[in-house]
Amino acid sequence: MGYFKNIKLNCFRNFNEFQLDFSDKCNVFFGKNGCGKTNLLEALSLCTKGRGIRKDKITNFIKKDENAFSNIAYFINENIEYEIKVITELKNNKLQKKILLNNEFSSEVNKKIQSLITYLIYLPENERLFLASPTTRRNFFDHFIISSNEKYSTLLNFYKKNVYERNVILNNINFDEAWLTKIEENISNSGLEIYENRKIQVDLFVKNLESISKYFNIKFKVNVEINDPFYNEKLNIDKYMISLKKNRENDKIVGGARFGPHKSDYIFFVDKNYLASQLSTGQQKTLVLLLYFSQCNYLVNTCNKKPILLLDEVCSHLDEINTKLLLKIVKQFDMQVFMTGTNKDLFSFLSTNTNFYNISNK
Ligand SMILES: Nc1ncnc2c1ncn2[C@@H]1O[C@H](COP(=O)(O)OP(=O)(O)O)[C@@H](O)[C@H]1O
Ligand SMILES: [Mg+2]
How confident is the model at residue 221 (pLDDT cuts 50, 70, 90)? Predict the structure, then answer.
C-alpha cells in the first residue's frame, strides 16, 4: 500500500487548474469555509471506484460552466509510480466517471487500483454517529467493512439490485414464479452474507475497543449490537426465503422489502445498558475516534493494508484524551493522512512531519 505523490485538478468543483505535491505522511488543508478543502479530499477519494466521499452526481464534480473535469494523481507503491487519471465520459448519453491507470482502462485495471488504494474516511457528520439516522450508521459500518474487504461493496450492490428486481417482478401481473424464486434466493444468500460480515465487524469492535480503551485509560466499557428484529444467529437460507415468499403481497404494496440488512441498525451501549447517544458530545467523539483507531489497527496489523486516511473537519471537541487518540491514529500506523480545518492552529498538536497547505490562497 502506497501514497499519493501529487494531484493535478482540471475543472474540478471550484478549481480551474490546481496542483499540489504531498508528503507521504501527514497533509493538512486549511483555509476559510468554501475554499475547497473538502473538494480536495473528494478529488482524492474519486481515484477508486464510486462517487467519492460525498456520493454526489458526476455532473456536480465539473466546474460550473465547463463540460468535463480531468484529474491526474501520481501514486507510489513499492517504488513504482502509477498515473491515475479520473475523467468524465459520455456513455449512452449518460455522463460517467472513468479511471485510467497509466493510460489504460479495463476491468483488470480497476482491480489493480482497488488493490493499490484503500481509503478510510472521516466525515464531519460521523461526530453525530449515535444520534444520526440508522442509514448513517449502516453506511459507517459498511464503509469500514469495505476498507478491509473490497468485495463487500459488490455484495451490497448485488443485494440492492435483487431487492429492486423483486419489486419490479411483484408489480408485474404475469410474473414467472421460478424467476421470482431465483431472485428471492439471491436476496437471501447475499442478505445472509451481509449480516455475517456486519456481525464480524461488530465483534471485532467489541473485542478491540476493550483493549484500546484500557490503553487510553478510558473508563467506559463499550458494547455494540446489531439491532434488527429479523436477524438472529439461527437465520438461514430456508427461513429467509419463506419470509420473503410470505411477504410478497405486503412488499408489493410498500415497494422494496420490509426486512433485511437494508433495514438494520446498530446500538452502542456504554457500561452495559447506557446508550452512547446519552454521552456528552466530547465523549461521543472519543468513542468515534476509538472506532477509527480500532479499524486502523485492524487494517494495518491484521489485514496488512495501509489505508489512506481522509479526515474532514476532525478537529472539533478535542480535549486531552481526544487529542491523544487522534494523534495516535495519525502517527502510529505510518499511513498517509489528509486532514482539513479552517485554521492552522487547530493542528498544533501534530508538531513535526506535517505539510500544511493554505487552500484559501490558491
Ligand atoms: N461544480 C462546481 N463548480 C464550481 N464551484 C463549486 C462546484 N461545486 C462546489 N463548488 C464550490 O466549492 C465550494 C465548497 O468547497 P468545499 O470543499 O466544500 O469547501 P470547504 O473548504 O469549506 O471544505 C463552494 O464555494 C461551492 O460553491
Ligand atoms: Mg469542508
Answer: confident
Closest ligand to the CA of 30: 1
- The strand pair at 15-21 and 3-12 is best described as antiparallel
- Name the residue with the closest Cα to ligand 1, atom 18: 38
Which percentage of the chain shows pLDDT scores above 90?
Answer: 88
Alpha carbons 114 and 127: distance in angstroms, whole number: 28
Residue 38 Cα, ligand 1 centroid: separation in angstroms? 8
Query: How far, in Å, is the centroid of ligand 1 from the Cα of 43?
Result: 12
**pLDDT recorded at residue 351:** 76
Ligand 1, pocket residues at CB < 6 Å: 13-14, 33-39, 60, 62-64
- Per-residue pLDDT of 52-106, as tens digits, reads 999 999 999 999 999 999 999 999 999 999 999 999 999 888 999 999 999 999 9
**For residue 123, which of 140, 141, 148, 147 has the smallest C-alpha distance?**
140
Tell me the sheet residues that pair with 96. 89
> Which residue's CA lies nearest to atom 15 of ligand 1?
36
Tell the burial category of 104 from Cβ atoms under 10 Å away from its Cβ (0-12, 13-18, 19+): exposed
Mutate to test the pocket of ligand 1, among 14, 53, 122, 361 (most ligand atoms within 8 A of CB): 14
Of the candidates 314, 328, 308, 327, the one whose C-alpha atom is nearest the C-alpha of residue 285 is 314
Going by the DSSP 8-state scheme, the letter that residue 265 receives in this structure is: E
Q: What is the per-residue pLDDT across 129-176, written as a single tens digit (0 to 9) for each?
A: 999 999 999 999 999 999 999 899 999 999 999 999 999 999 998 889
Nearest to 51 by CA among 114, 96, 105: 96
Q: How many CA atoms lie within 13 A of 181 on its CB side?
A: 5
Give backbone dihedrals phi and psi of 140, rounded to 5 degrees, phi first: -60, -50
The rounded Å distance from CA 108 to ligand 2 centre is 34
How far is ligand 1, taken at its centre, from the CA of residue 85, in Å? 21
Q: What confidence tens digit (pLDDT) does each residue in 291-350 have? A: 999 999 999 999 999 999 999 999 999 999 999 999 999 999 999 999 999 999 999 999
Q: Which helix (H) or strand (E) holds 37?
A: helix 37-45
